[in-house]
UniProtKB/TrEMBL annotation:
One of its GO terms (molecular function) is tRNA binding. It is found in: Cytoplasm. The keyword Nucleotide-binding applies. This is tRNA-specific 2-thiouridylase MnmA. Its EC number is 2.8.1.13. It catalyses: S-sulfanyl-L-cysteinyl-[protein] + uridine(34) in tRNA + AH2 + ATP = 2-thiouridine(34) in tRNA + L-cysteinyl-[protein] + A + AMP + diphosphate + H(+). It holds the Pfam family tRNA_Me_trans_C. InterPro entries: MnmA-like (IPR004506), MnmA-like_C (IPR046885), MnmA-like_central (IPR046884), MnmA-like_central_sf (IPR023382), Rossmann-like_a/b/a_fold (IPR014729). One of its GO terms (cellular component) is cytoplasm. GO terms for biological process: tRNA wobble position uridine thiolation. The active site is at 101 (nucleophile), 199 (cysteine persulfide intermediate). It comes from Cellulomonas soli. Residues 208-273 form the tRNA-specific 2-thiouridylase MnmA-like central domain.
């Protein structure tokens, strides 16, 4: 097959490309340039889009003996990932930019361009497994290494894009194995630190980035009784479940820590409460993407953070793209924010994904039928 290998400049994508070459594919390497300004993205290894990465990717391609190109996807990245990030926070929601990057850039803009150029598949260094089912369709599964599993951020890609994806590292038992393989192949990135944080927030200060882009929007921090207990410079800088950085002027009556329960951007208000009030009894999401949509109500597991623990739930889907997950009574799920991704699993297999629109606290009355709009008895 003709395979386009996405080379980020890190060790994972380099080893994935090497394995594609070993498998006998006709491989071409490409690095995605996501910013036209060298100052916009951080230097060093904190993010996956640092200015050194293009050079590391080129050197990896040279070692592998494959052609190498740089594709400018900065406009698409700004218009989709960065714009979505700002819009969601401004609306009081908490987006995951890595999910949006996989959706709009790596498995939309990149894949569409690859297919137009005659490539059969796109190869990346994601840790996830693909299994072919008896009917010839493909299923997305968790990686062999739970610590590195990235199926959560890949769930948004859907079956059509999965059909043209390659994840050669899905069966790797640990990141140490990947590094050892890179060293054995003579790849200089074998000891390069893992990337983390948001690549387009150059100094790692997300609140500062939001404040610079969205401006100062001061307002009150209130408790669940409506009493003002502090102030803020922008409700968009807070997320459900947050404890640190609240700078509350009045402690809770019982002296216990308080957490963000909801963000209300129209009123510029942040609502805080106890840890117990963060417990979630049900999640509703929309814009669902399914690999295998449940029929009726099914028992499965849901995960709401990239490295969060899955919890048991009863999930049902509707034809309009809405999803409801009623969390098992013995599960302790807390701090779920609108805008997060909720991914549905059957064992290691990904069934689908949706974007959280609202949550129902534990103990609140259960709605008689699924809804996907905001309710007055739930966390917004």
């Amino acid at each position: 097959m003709r395979v386009l290998a996405a080379l980020s400049g890190g060790v994972d994508s380099a080893v994935a490309a090497a394995r594609a070459v070993d498998a006998g594919h006709d491989v071409v390497g490409v690095h995605m340039a996501l910013s036209r300004s060298r100052d916009q993205f951080r230097t060093g290894s904190r993010g996956c889009c640092s200015i050194e990465d293009a050079g590391d990717a080129r050197r990896a391609a040279d070692v592998l003996g494959i052609p190498y190109y740089v594709w400018d996807l900065s406009e698409q990245f700004e218009e989709t990932v960065v714009a979505d990030f700002l819009t969601e926070y401004a609306a009081g929601r908490t987006p995951n930019p890595c999910v949006r990057c996989n959706e709009h850039i790596k498995f939309a803009a990149l894949l569409d361009k690859a297919v137009a150029l005659g490539f059969d598949a796109v190869c990346t260094g994601h840790y996830a497994r693909i299994e072919t089912l008896p009917d010839g369709s493909r299923a997305l599964h968790r990686a062999a290494d739970p610590a590195k599993d990235q199926s959560y951020v890949l769930a948004v890609m859907g079956p059509e894009r999965l059909a043209r994806a390659m994840f050669p590292l899905g069966d790797v038992s640990s990141k140490d194995v990947t590094r050892a393989e890179a060293a054995a192949r003579g790849l200089s990135v074998s000891t390069k630190p893992d990337s983390y944080d948001i690549c387009f927030v150059a100094d790692g200060d997300t609140q500062g980035f939001l404040r610079e882009r969205l401006g100062s929007q001061p307002g009150p921090v209130v408790d669940t009784a409506g009493e003002v207990v502090g102030t803020h410079d922008g409700a968009y800088a807070y997320t459900v479940g947050q404890r640190r950085g609240l700078a509350l002027g009045r402690p809770a009556p019982d002296g216990r820590p308080r957490y963000v329960l909801s963000v209300e951007p129209v009123r510029r208000t942040v609502v805080v409460g106890s840890a117990e009030e963060l417990r979630v009894g049900a999640i509703v999401g929309d814009e669902a993407v399914w690999f295998d949509a449940p029929v009726g109500e099914v028992a499965c597991h849901v995960q709401v953070r990239a490295h969060g623990a899955p919890v048991g739930a009863r999930v049902r889907a509707s034809a309009d793209g809405a999803v409801e997950a009623v969390i098992d009574d013995d599960a302790d799920l807390r701090g779920v924010a609108p805008g997060q991704s909720v991914v549905v699993y059957d064992g290691s297999r990904v069934l689908g994904q949706a974007t959280v629109t609202w949550t129902r606290p534990v103990g609140a009355a259960q709605p008689a039928a699924m809804a996907c709009g905001p309710r007055t008895d739930v966390h917004p």
